[in-house]
Amino acid sequence: MVAGYQCHGFGNEFSSEDPRCPGSLPEGQVIHTQKHTLGSLNNPQVCPYGLYAEQLSGSAFTCPRPANKRSWLYRILPSVKHKPFAPVPCGNLTENWNEVEPDPNQLRWLPFTIPKSTEKKVDFAAGLHTVCGAGDAKSRNGIGIHMYTCNTSMADRCFNNSDGDFLIVPQQGEILITTEFGKMMVEPNEICVIQQGMRFSVDVFGETRGYILEVYGAHFELPDLGPIGANGLANPRDFLCPVAWYEDRKVATGYTIINKYQGKLFACQQDFSPFNVVAWHGNYTPYKYNLENFMVINCVAFDHADPSIFTVLTAKSTRPGVAIADFVIFPPRWGVADHTFRPPYYHRNCMSEFMGLIKGHYEAKEEGFQPGGASLHSIMTPHGPDGECFEKNSTAELKPERVAEGTMAFMFESSFSMAVTKWGLQTCQRLDKNYYQCWESLRSHFNPNWKPSKQ
Ligand SMILES: O=C(O)Cc1cc(O)ccc1O
Ligand SMILES: [Fe+2]
To answer: How far is CA 129 from CA 206, 371, 406, 422, in A?
Structure first.
């Protein structure tokens, strides 16, 4: 049990009541006008404490049970009570994948700049910047990859994404996320997922930066384990979700709901806090996970295993085995493979690979790839270890050794061919123009007279 988080487990059926209102969940309680106890009544004629019942659906009503997601929220006022939405500027958030010409080069970004609070106050919603993406929120198939850089808490403002799920990877600064389901503190080396339609507001405690993988039209799942067996990788019980927390707060000056809808931002006003859910139950919730809990599987004999062994979460497409996007990490582990070039191999991939670094270094590139920066190796764009890494690891003694100690690199791997935005290629001014040079020192070792060494 982790303090403040009553709910453990991935995708479970949870129930939560704010302790200030015992009995606020109608589930299974005695309805006083009747003699008997009813079962799981979701929508009573009159809810306990005079609350409104509201369902949040995360899947089509008719989805098969394993994919069916919904939660019931018992709230002081329903979400529908608000003034009309109107368009607001999107800043650097976009779903326009045609802003600039395609670029198949290996791309690498220096750490993205965080605005100084002394110069400009920027909150999470205003600090969203789209780097790359593909697909279409309207047809419910695609992804967006965003950076958030901010220095100020959201004040009487919350965000609601109608387009998809946000997998948030804090890199610098913890974030306190208030959601309709309760509060979650998420620190660097933890991740959280705020699913489609869940209202949330972000408090920060200084200069703050992180990465977001947005997926339209699918939810994140734990990957199948196949021959690994029943346990391993990210274990379901290490996923935590918040407990019900409400505020009954009038906001005479207006509370702003920001809605991302079809790739654009809209805002509306209401005169009360949207975090007015006293109790909830269901299997559609926000959740968080500490990457330290990942049970790493790695090669113990020879050769380099594909990075799919490090998949934390996957958002599946309808093609078997093909993800819209996988979230993959490169955690600290033992490297013991014999006769093997241990770092990542040289490769070209039919998937797109966006990488970020939470802390430390990345094993294939000791220099240049920095925490808070990123790289993109697009579909079939060749990449692999830099010259220095190749030389070092071709001659290294193959004793058991700790790999990636104190570091955490990750990859958003997608079957979509992603477009980079104008902000990503130009406006952010963080593109490392010299990236290609890290492979320039690779030289031919070819020896036509080579003979196998005698054993
Ligand atoms: O390109 C990368 O650095 C990511 C990666 C790591 C690895 O161990 C194997 C394949 C791969 O794409
Ligand atoms: Fe790769």
So the answer is: 19, 17, 28, 10
Pocket of ligand 1 (CB under 6 A): 307, 344, 347, 349, 353, 364, 377, 383, 411
Name the residues annotated as catalytic: 304
pLDDT digits (tens, 9 = 90+) for 376-389: 999 999 999 999 99
CA of 349 to the centre of ligand 2 (A): 7
Amino acid at 387: G
For the domain made up of 295-436, give the CATH fold: Jelly Rolls (2.60.120)
Residues 106-129: pLDDT tens digits? 999 999 999 999 999 999 999 999
Neighbours of ion ligand 2 (CB under 5 A): 353
- Interface confidence, given as ipTM, is 0.99
* 8 Å CB contact between 208 and 128: no
Query: Ligand 2 centre from 383 Cα, in Å?
Result: 6
> What are 242-281's pLDDT values in tens digits?
999 999 999 999 999 999 999 999 999 999 999 999 999 9
Which CATH fold topology does 7-291 show?
A: Jelly Rolls (2.60.120)
